Fold:
Amino acid sequence: MKKKSINPLKTIIIAAIMLGCLGYMVKCAIDCKRQVEALTEMKHHEVPTYQIK
Structure:
């Protein structure tokens, strides 16, 4: 019978990777949000010129 013991180092590494992925996802989400906001702002600026034509 194998004794199941949680390897603390392995747990820390997995936790660090998960935190890193989470941070990266949050960063990507913020970047995407900024890009979308920038695009929508550009569209709002372009709308009047389209209406004139």
Remarks:
- The chain is about 85% helix and 0% strand.
